Amino acid sequence: MVQLNRPKVGTPAEAKILHTLHETGSLLIGDFFLPSYIIKCIQAAEGLAPTQKILIATEAIKRGSDDEFIKRMMAGIDDTKNWAVSVREEGYHQINILCFLSEWAAQESGLENTIAAIIQTIEPAAISAASKFANGRYTMSNWPWSDSQCLEIAQKLDSKAKEKTPDGGWDIANRLIVLFEWLGVILKIPLDAASKYNEASMIRNVMLHRYGKLGDSEIRRAPHLSEWLEKTLPITQQTVTEYHNAIISIHLAIFTAIRENGWK
């Protein structure tokens, strides 16, 4: 889920690029471990339900509570327990989805913020970025540009990289390689990580726009998911881990390439 407070990181804010990467990495780790905390709470709601009913009944009798009040309390405990059981029987699918979508949002935001930080602090990167737009749209005479303007450029560059990348709608890993190369950053993304990252992007879109139902186009892209054609793909902890590892691989590829450039 979107964290209310930004994580505190050791990298100074003045090192804008590395600070952004450090903050993004912290968010990614936080979202990855979130399902386990939520699942433990759900398991406690199921396992401790009998004890909770005994304690509440005992305390209610001591206080002289009426029978109707006690019945409502017991019904509430049973309802929560039944929900916990149903969630467990689905392999905590809904919890895993929420946390995966949150982690994807964190990395997507982190990518835009990192690109914006590069444009704002590295002049050759800014010149290259400006060259992708109509002459005079972003002038170096006004550089360094504001935070909001750099973020605007970062978002628009992604669309332009999509156009320049073969099959750019699907192959977002290669799209990142194209975009970062424009900025002077050479990404080295392992093929298996790129493939799983592209799949994760596709599943994210299916979850948001088709409520999880896979169609023919998705199966053509990921034949190993064919048993879920016209069905909702179950998101297990293993699935979340695979997508998390792919996201981390992309993040580390960006971090490594920027460190090789000596940028801060």
Report on the architecture of this protein:
- With 264 residues, this protein is mainly α.
- The chain has one domain.
- It is built from ten helices and no strands.
- Helix 1 packs across helix 3 and helix 1 runs antiparallel to helix 10.
- The longest helix is centred in the N-terminal third of the chain and has 32 residues.
- The protein is elongated, with a radius of gyration of 24 Å.
- It starts with 15 loop residues before the first helix and ends with a helix.
Describe the protein's topology.
Layout: H1 16-47, H2 49-62, H3 67-89, H4 93-121, H5 123-130, H6 147-164, H7 172-182, H8 191-209, H9 216-221, H10 237-261
Q: Strand count, sense and closure of the main sheet?
A: none
Into how many domains do the coordinates divide?
A: 1
| Mean pLDDT over all positions | 95
Apparent shape: elongated
Please give the count of helices: 10
Quaternary structure of the protein: single chain
Number-wise, the strands total: 0
- Poorly predicted runs are none
Helix-strand topology string? HHHHHHHHHH
Radius of gyration, whole Å: 24 Å
Head-to-tail CA distance between termini: 29 Å
Query: Strand pairing plus helix content: what structural class?
Result: mainly alpha
Helix content: over 70%
Strand-residue proportion = under 5%
